[in-house]
Amino acid sequence: MMENKINLCTNEILTKIPSTAKLVFYKIAIEDANFEITPEWIEWAAELAQTQYKTPHIIELSHKTDMDDQIYLRGLTNVIFDEFNIDLNDIPTICKCYGIYLIRQGFAENKDVYEILTQLANLFIVTNYYVFYDFYTLHLAYTELKKEGEQNYWDGLDFKNKEEYIRKYLEQWIKNPSSQLYNK
Considering the entire predicted model, what is its pTM? Predict the structure, then answer.
């Protein structure tokens, strides 16, 4: 049996199956008309089925080979999220979890901090979710530093410390995913 209430960011499922954060974000960020269950979802369900999160719905999704009945597949994923008590209406938490996922994935793959920052800044541009606003502003500052040698977007960030500053900011954001610039 699943826990009664799950905070997605602290949920152990994200430790065991980190891609959950990505798929939950996709679920809320893409309009239903354009949302499609892909083989990536089937792989996710197969990973879940290999853990203690084995439910009939997860097993069913993990064995799907036909992607034609998208309405049924979307419904099946909704049932799975309900089983985990993941609130698809909690957009700020979902965004934070996805941001944490992207940062950790970037660090694990030894990506350049500017590449990670660009990915996060693009999320603000595409979604306009305030959770990603700092990354957008930091990206503007970093880009200006690269082009001009100075910037006026972010106090404390300069040409000499940009790499270290951004890395520390990303590490801190994982611990406390909140905006310094945007107050809701």
Answer: 0.85
